[in-house]
Amino acid sequence: MTVVSVRRLDLGYFVRPAAETGGPEPRVEPVLAYLVRHARGLLLFDTGMGDAGPATEAHYRPRRRSLPEALAAAGVGPGDVDLVVNCHLHFDHCGGNRGLTGRSVVVQRTELSAARAGGYTADHLVDFPGARYEELDGEAELWPGVHVLPTPGHTEGHQSLAVTTSAGVVVVAGQAYDLASHFSADHLARRAALDGTEPPLPFHRPWMDRIAALAPRRVLFAHDCAVREPGDEGAATV
């Protein structure tokens, strides 16, 4: 087994306004990255919040924990990171890329194209001196047991990561869903459809079939500390 561990990194939080939560109150959401230790090196999935300008700062009121501090808590530093994967290129997922200049940043080609079209994200967080992108068109194996999976929805070019550990597959889903409970709802909607449950049924994203085929022991998220684990499906936890 080449994947040793998948470790969560706390990179701070922001306050999502009530207008974006679907409820009467704002919601404080964590900003989480994930460090994959592998025989090939260290892979970092997402890098935290960059400064996207006064309007965005006022809108989301972010409180940041620096990437070097978060990495230090895991016993490593920025210089130890070998490869970066961004689930997408909004300011709260690629903000630390500038501090990892020279590393390849893996993104979907459609995501990078959207980011460079303007009006999508903070341009200076995407293109900066030394930025180097590895563009993908769909699914790819980056290292043995480490796969990028397209999971469009939040953005057209959103992607997730599936890593195979000795205890099973861990899916790092980024912002494919804001909350673990939303993932579980889609998972059950798919199950109901496959069971032949009479409509109407809620929509579930087509790529859930690919995730389900992996039978993940854990699904991890960028803005929710909760972890989706199998219910009565008989799978062990990681």
Sheet with the most strands: spatial strand order: 4-1-2-3-5-6-7
User: What fraction, in percent, of the residue positions are helical?
Assistant: 10-25%
Order of helices and strands: EHEEHEHEHEHHEEEEEHHE
Major sheet characteristics: 7 strands, mixed
How much strand? 25-35%
Whole-number mean pLDDT: 95
Coarse morphology? globular
- Kindly report how far apart the N and C termini lie: 14 Å
> Cα-atom Rg, whole angstroms?
18 Å
Low-confidence stretches: 234-238
The secondary structure category is alpha/beta
Number of strands: 12
Q: Helix count, per DSSP?
A: 8
Concise description?
This protein has 238 residues and is α/β, with parallel strands linked by helices. It has eight helices and twelve strands.
Description of the molecule:
Helix content is 24%, strand content 29%. It is α/β, with parallel strands linked by helices and 238 residues long. It has a seven-stranded mixed beta sheet. Strands 8-9-10-11-12 form a five-stranded mixed beta sheet, covered by helices on one side. The longest helix has 15 residues, at 180-194. The relative contact order is 0.15. The model is unreliable at 234-238 (pLDDT under 50).
